[in-house]
Amino acid sequence: MDCIVSSSTVLIRSHLTPIRSASSVSAKPLSSAQVASFAANRHILSFKSDLKRIRTLSTNASSSTIRCGGIKEIGESEFTSTVLESDRPVLVNFVATWCGPCKLVYPATEALSQEYGDRLTIVKIDHDANPNLIAEYKVYGLPHFILFKDGKEVAGSRREGAITKAKLKEYIDGLLTSISVA
């Protein structure tokens, strides 16, 4: 059985088969035990489909920030150590929770973060929570990408707006080639 969990309901469907019923999908409130269990295990995402179980741990032991794969959300206090003092190129993705294009680009960014591995670090910075960085780097549109190498912004590396995974990969490959990291 697959469960879709929110803070107030659990929707249950069998093997992700579409429900073909005239009635609406039934939902029931979570019990206090389910809420406690979910809260204690929220760092584990589990999905079951076609009798296969995929389990992904998404925590970073050194920080209370939840990591999803290879992308870490940082703030102004971590910017210098994570971006400017990094020994490898860092692609900074400025995003906002209310930004639709940011949400569209995120899966592609996540996949490419894993694909590039040790050649490139990708971080995201919340636009609303980091106004000083937004002003310093003159970020006017979202999502906004800037590549940093050796503590400096790579010339011509700015990219603004939604982008497909293929175009994002092409953009990153071009930047890495131009700074001799490919």
TrEMBL record:
InterPro entries: Thioredoxin-like_sf, Thioredoxin_domain. SUPFAM superfamilies: Thioredoxin-like (SSF52833). It is found in: Plastid. Transmembrane segments: none annotated. Residues 16-177 form the Thioredoxin domain. Gene3D superfamilies: Glutaredoxin. Its main location: plastid. One of its GO terms (molecular function) is protein-disulfide reductase activity. The keyword Transit peptide applies. One of its GO terms (cellular component) is plastid. The keyword Transport applies. Keywords: Disulfide bond, Electron transport, Redox-active center, Transit peptide, Transport. This is Thioredoxin domain-containing protein. It comes from Brassica campestris.
